[in-house]
Fold this protein.
Amino acid sequence: MTTSCFTVSFCALPTALTRSPNAPDVRLYVGHVGIGGGYGYNWVLGRKWLLHFSMLPTFVVYNRNNMTIRGERKKAEHIRFNMLFNERAAIVHFFSPRHFAGATLVVNSSLFSDDAVVINQNKWRLRAFLCMRL
């Protein structure tokens, strides 16, 4: 059995990154508002397995990005290519109606491009779980 769904998303995510102690004095601020739409699939294999995959690309429609290097502030242009990608995958195994286990993987990727700077950021999170319904 296969099911699918379509998702529309609005996001507003501020991020501030600072330098490491060994790097020059650098501060990066990334703030944006985006609109995206994605698709997800769920597959039921047999009676005990569930697989899930989804992707949500997001286009940034407004940004307030800037970078400070040694006290000099540089602003990114407001209309440049900026995208966010959110991918998810999961697998769940049902041992009985009360017990199940599984794992999820979430990947968040972003691409911010300006004439002077291109930033590609990736975050991965893998989580495993063992559950009992009460």
